[in-house]
Request: fold
Amino acid sequence: MNPQQVLDAGQQGLMLMLMVSAPILVVVLVVGLLVSIFQAATQLNEATLSFVPKVVAAIAVLAFAGPWMLQTLVEYLQRTLQSIPGAVG
Reply:
């Protein structure tokens, strides 16, 4: 296995991680921003008010996009495991 193959495998892994985690991160970021604006407008500084909507949003995204995320990760793992004989030999 030459250094270029190692770099390509690492780059593919990082891109996959970014692609799979992006939906959850974006939704939680937007929900957090909306809750922060609401808290600033109403001057409610309750800790659970900022935490609970983010958790609910993350669970909703996982329920909606979870099958796609799992399928993408399984396909990547299968490709990686099938490429081992070619990388070693």
In short: Residues 3-88 form one domain. Helices lie at 3-42, 47-82, 84-88. The first helix runs from residue 3 to 42. The chain has one domain: 3-88.
